[in-house]
Amino acid sequence: MLVYSRLAIVLGLATTFQLATLAQTPSAPQKIPPPLGKLVDVGGYRVHLYCTGTGSPAVVIVGAGFSFNWGLVQPEVARFTQVCSYDHSGIGWSESGPKDSCSLRVSEVHAALKNAAIKGPYVLVGHSLGGLVARVYAGEYPDEVAGMVFVDHAMQFGLMLSPPPPGDAKLAPGSAPPMPPKMPLVPGGGGGGIESDPNFSKLSSRDRELHLWAMSQTRNQMALQANHEIVPECVAKADAIAKEHSHPLGDKPLVDVSTDEALGPDYVKLQTDLLSLSENSKQIIARKSGHFVIIDRPDVVIDAISQVVQSVHNNSKLQDNALR
Asked: Which comes out higher in pLDDT, residue 1 or 324?
């Protein structure tokens, strides 16, 4: 059940959280708040790119959620280098684009960075589904990636996208099999999004208000609902890259931030597989954190990014694994 609970949390990030948002939906249209960053053309439509700080290598955040969900991480990273977060097409301030896909996510980030004149190579930071997108980006544009940070990388078990066969031993007696991805189960019921995390209150009032504004909009709900649809393509592309090379990232620094929640064998194996992507990798376990490490333990995420940036700067190996 731990595997299915874990997948439910990850897919919960990609749903509309209807129970949580129906009460937030206004009866009249809300005034659109001004964007934090700027809208950048990516080929006939624009996406929101929010860059702060100066220096290199630039850190590029690729996540399944909104740019303002990184309000506890981005300002601190901006103290030591340039850092950019973005909203993929159809969410936040970004305009709607073509049908969502893993390839589209990669091309949007690539075009946005180039058209905004953000110089590479970059340190990519991928949270959840963003970890898969970051890996595909590195496979397609290897010269544009200097390092990588995974933050509770999405579970990538293709078989988990459908209910298990009857009698699966992992299911407790009398329990129902997981629902299909379009109606993912979320621990505790209800929303299961970042707003349901107890540490959501740690975000600034501005970022909380922006998140609740975004989640009250039907277009955002629909776009996030479709996140699960790109998982199979992302998994297939990432797996193909991994099979092509024993260490796809070579000796580029890679820090894998995992959690100590529901440490089942499949989750542990995933971390081992992720670490094998580079010959210069390490794992940091964020203690007392759920899936939303960026608000549960932002200090760990900031430290992981700092270590990769320093490794790139100094052309040095990362230190040994750490538990935080």
From this structure: 324
Residue 41's φ and ψ, nearest 5 degrees, are -70, 130
CA 233 vs CA 190, 238, 239, 307: distances in Å: 28, 9, 10, 31
Domains of the chain, start order: 2-323 (3.40.50.1820)
| Of residues 88, 10, 30, the one with CA closest to residue 218 | 30
Residue 214 has pLDDT above 70, yes or no: yes
Among 80, 88, 91, 78, smallest CA distance to 126 is for 88
Structure tokens at 214: 């975004």
Residue with tokens 């439910």: 8
Amino acid residing at 116: A
pLDDT band at 227 (very low <50, low <70, confident <90, very high): confident
pLDDT at 183 over 60: no
| CA distance linking residue 59 with residue 81, whole number of Å | 7
* Distance from chain centroid for Cα 240: 20
H or E element in which residue 238 lies: helix 231-244
pLDDT at 244: 86
- Return the number of other C-beta atoms located less than 10 Å from residue 204's C-beta: 12
In 25-130, beta strands by DSSP E: 38-41, 46-52, 59-62, 83-87, 122-127
Residue 295 · residue 208 · CB < 8 Å? no
Provide Rg for the chain, Cα atoms.
19
CA distance 316 to 310: 8
Q: Which two tokens stand for residue 158?
A: 């293709």
At 286, the pLDDT band (50, 70, 90 cuts) reads: very high
Instruction: Decide if 64 contacts 71 (C-beta within 8 A).
Output: no
Mean pLDDT across the stretch 157-167? 37
